[in-house]
Here is the input.
Amino acid sequence: MMDEDDLKLMEDLAQKASFLTRDLSSDEPVHVKKRKHESVIDKYEKVPRRMQTEPEKELIHLLPIKDKGGIIPQTMEKPVLNVAQNEEEDTEEMEEAEDFNEELLPVLTPEEMAAQRRQKLQERKMHIAALASAILSEPDNNIKKLKELRAMLMEQDPNVAVIVRKLVMVSLMEIFKDIAPSYKIRPLTEAEKATKVKKETQKLREFEEGLVSQYKFYLENLEQTIKDWKQRKLKKSNVISLKAYKGLAEIAVKCLCELLVALPHFNFHNNIIVLIVPLMNDASKMVLKVFLHLRIKEVELQKDSEDIAPKKKFMTYKEKRKNLSRMQRKWKKAEEKLERELLEAEASESKEKKLKLHTETLNIVFVTYFRILKKAQKSPLLPAVLEGLAKFAHLINVEFFDDLLIVLHSLIASGGLSYRESLHCVLSAFHILSGQGDVLNIDPMKFYTHLYKTLFSLHAGGTNDDTGIVLQCMDVMFAKRRKQVSQQRALAFLKRLSTLALHVLPNSSVGILATNRVLMQTFPKMDLLLDNESQGSGVYLPELEEPEHCNAQNTALWELHLLQRHYHPMVQKFAAHLIVGAPTEGSGALSLDLSQRPATELFEAYSMRGMTFNPPVASVTPRRKDTFSQMGSFVDEELNKQLQQHISETTVHKPLDFAKHLKESSLL
Here is the structure.
C-alpha cells in the first residue's frame, strides 16, 4: 500500500506530459489536460471585471408651455428598447416566415426546373438585347442605361448567374467598341467647366463624361473578376462556384484583349496593358501561344533602300533669311508648323524603326523558345514552342540551324511527343531547310521517314485538326523542295496518301487529293501508278517504313476508283480528276476556283465542325400525291398493254375459228 503523500505525488506527475504517459494517438496539445482541470473559480477570477452601469437616459425636448410665470420647458425620457428581446422576436418572425415559405414552395420536377431556367434565361437575354439596342440607337440620350446593363454583372440567381454575367461582359464590350469615339477623352479643367457653352456642346460633354465613367467601372469589374480568380477568393454572398468562376475570368481576359486591340487610342489603354501582361506568367498552356499572333513573318530581314522614304527636311533660319522675303518667311513658318502637326498626328514610323523593333521582339521570342527546348523538354509549354518554331523558323539565324535540327530529331526519336508535337517538329525542320537553310548540305531523310511511317496515325474522326499540319508538311517537303526529292519517294507518298484518303473525313480526303494533284503535276512520270503493268523488279511493300525502298512503282492507285463512289461530291470530283492524270485543261480539268485553292484552304472550306454538309444537300422528297399518280400511271400502262394484247388475240384468232366453223358447216 502507498502512502497518501506518495499517491498524490504520482497523480501530480501523471498530469505532466512525457513520451511515456501521453497518448500518442491523440491530437490534443501537450498541456491541454492541465488547462482542462483548472477550477471554475480560477477561470472566473481570470475574467476581466466590468462595471455594470445603467445606461444614460436620453431626453426628448417637447414644445414648451407658457403660463403667468413664464415659459416652462417640457421633456420626456426616450423609451429604452430591450435589444435582446427584439432580436428574439425578429428571429422568431424570420423562422416563421421561412417555415411559411417552405410550405408554399412547390416541389418541381427536373423537367420543370429546366423549363423554368430556360424561361429566366430568355427573359435576361431579351432585357440585355433591349438595353443594348437602345444604347446603340441613341448613345447620347441612353448613356445612363449602361449603368443598368452593368448592374447585371452582379446577377444573383444561381441558375442563370454564370451565363448572364458572360453575356453582359461580351455585350458591354461590343457596345463600347461601337460607341467609343476615335479620340481620347480628357477631363475638363475648372475654367472649362465654369465657361458657358452651347446646349450641343454641353450635351456632348455629359455624354463623354458618362461614357468614360461607365467604361472605367466596367474595366474595374473585369479586373476584380480576374483578381478573385487568381487569388481563388469568392465572396460569401457569391452564387457562382470556383470552378465556374474560371470561365468568367477567361471571358474577362478576352474582353480586355478585344478592347485593347479595338480601342488602342481610347482612355485607360495603358491600364489594360498593365493588367494583361502579368497574365502571361500564368501556368496555362495558352501562354506562349500569344507569340503566334506576332506579325513578324511579313517583315523582310534585309533592308530595301528604295522602300525607305527620305525624311522631310525643313529650311534653317539662315536659309530663310537668305532666300526668302519677310512675308515669305512668315508663310513658310506657318506651313512648316502645319506639316509638323500633321506628321505627329499621323504617327507613322519609318521602316527602319519597325524593322529594329521586330528584330528585338523576335530575339526575345527565340530566347524563350530555346530556353524551354534546352532545359524543359517535358514542359507542358513544349507544344506551343514547337508550333511557334514552325511559324518563325524561316527567321532564325543560320548559325543555329545545325543545333536546332539535332534537337528536333532527338525530340522525335525520344518517343515522348504526341503525334501533333512530332508533326510540328517535322514542319519546323523543313521550314528551316526551305528558307536560309537551302544553302546547307543537310539530308532530312529521317524526317521524311518519320512522316511516312506515321501517316496512318492520323485521326479519322471529328478531331482531325492534325490533317492541316500534315498538308502543310507535304507542301514544304515536296512542292518547295522538288529538286531535292527523288521519284521513288514521291511515288511512295502518293500511294500512301491515296490509301489514307479512304479512311478520313471528307474534308481531309479533299485536302489529301488536292495534295496528290500537286504531286502528279510537280513530278514527272507519276502517272505510272495509273497503269496496271509493273515498271520494274520487285513487289510493292506497303508495310515497309522506308519510302525509298518500298517499290511503289509496282503498284497502282486502285483507291481512286473507290473514291469515285464516295458520298461526298467534291471527293468524287477530285478522284475523277486524278484518274485521268490531273490535266490542267480539257474535259477532265478542275474549275478555276478549285485548281487555284491550296490544300489547306480546301480542308478548312469543307470542314464539318458545325455539323453542316458542304455543299448543302438538296432536299428532294416526293409528295404522296405524286407517288400515287406515278403508281396510277404505271398501272394504267400495264392495263393498256394487257388490253391491246387481248384485242390483238381476239382480232386474229376469232376470224380463223369462224372460218373453220363455216368450213365444217359446209361439209355437213
Q: What stands out?
A: The mean pLDDT is 76.
